[in-house]
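I hope you will forgive my troubling you with a question about protein structure. You will find the record immediately after this paragraph.
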Amino acid sequence: MTAATGLVIRETTDTDIPAMAQIMSEVNPSHPWTPEALAHEISFLQSHPLGLHLAQWIVEDAGEPVAVAAILQFAGMYHPDRYHAEIMVLPVAERHGIGTRLADTVAAHLRERGAREVLAGAYEHQPHALAFLARRGFTEAMRFYDNVLELTDFDLGAWAEHERVPDGVRVLSYPQLESELGPEAALHAFHAGFAEAREDVPRTGEATELTVEDFRRRFENPAVYPDGLLLAVTDAGEVVALSELWRVDGSPARLNTGLTGTRRAWRRRGLALALKLAAIRVAVSAGVTEIWTGNATTNVPMLTVNERLGFRPRPAFVEMKWGGV
């Protein structure tokens, strides 16, 4: 590896997306990216009606991409003065000052934008990265576990009684709901249940309203797995609880859990557990051997359900914050 002074840092173009996805996947193999998924995410951010900010850089050493950085705003937790920062350096390129130079580039851009709050983070088993953020004035805000369920020996039969749902409620996949209600009515019913359930998910800032159009665009994501979108639906067609499975491109033996949640009036009736079990049944039928989910360490109700099912935590992601809005 050459000295950092021989490196080129430049803003990215669409032609860099495959290299960016490769770097992001190698730096954080627990959460791989495909070029298609990254292109979808970039397009969603750039075209969002909130005017979300996105700036990205790539670092080349002798023409070879070795690091990426990004500043972005998320629609789900939006404030005009809040930004999320990411810096990823390939392991072979670490300890050569690349992270420092990228951090300086990111910091200068944030000053130009007048940022009042910046969120960044690293895993708890990466103390050098956490110390790097601490030296730049970041303090811990929240921790999130990756929880993993190994399905090889999961005994669904032992959980049969917990798959039952209250009278007047059925468990349907999203395609089944579409066939009953029609695509547009199904979308609105799913959105209504999802939007209320997500409001109480722990996060480091206030949740932004989820519009129907934002929700519609989720189905453009190449990782969407319609048969893995499990819904508790009343006889009147109201979605009162849900648990989502999403594909992980390049990892056919794994599915990720999106949101599992229940509308407030329907909580403490076993719906979350029943839907998690329905999702596990779908995964087992598809030959999947692992389900991954992410949970804030403060989300005791969901952590309790997951631990009961046999999910086991991996090292936590530590979200760090600078400033505040």
